[in-house]
Amino acid sequence: MGDSSLWTLAIAAVTGGTAVLASWVTSRGSAQAARIQAEIAARSQRAERLRESRRTAYLDLIEQTHRMGELYWEISATLRLPGSDDRTATLTELHDREVAEYAKIRRCARVVELEGPPSAAAAALSLQKATGPFYAAVQQELAGEGDGRDAFDAAYRPFWAALENFVDAARDAHQRKETRAVGA
Length: 184
Fold this sequence. Notes:
- Helices cover 91% and strands 0% of the residues.
- It has helices at residues 2-79, 85-115, 118-129, 132-142, 148-154, 156-183.
């Protein structure tokens, strides 16, 4: 019976050791799985924050572009008035507003450039540059160097086309991110 007790004790020791080893392996595996899961969750949160940040930047630029468009309609209406001191004063005031609104659109374009991706950034900068002909036409009109109205009116089509290009680039960038996130 002594051998049987020794044998039982040996089997119990091996079983206990196996249980301890299995517990240790399981805990290490669980810890590693938890760490991986936490890293994936953090990466997902960063990606979502970037996506929302980009979306906000895109919407801000689109909104500011529409404000600029409304201002351009006001300037266009003023340019259609007959020449007078009141017209010049109004045009000067509108020009000052144009400069202030340009600063906002430039800031919005820079934020898009910062947020990326490069395709959206390039389209944002093109949109910002599409405001230049309007500015030049008003400057020409205020300086009395000819009829800036025709140049001003000719700037609308490229301006709105630049906005459409930006919206397309922003949408593509935004959807490409969603597709990658869904496919991952």
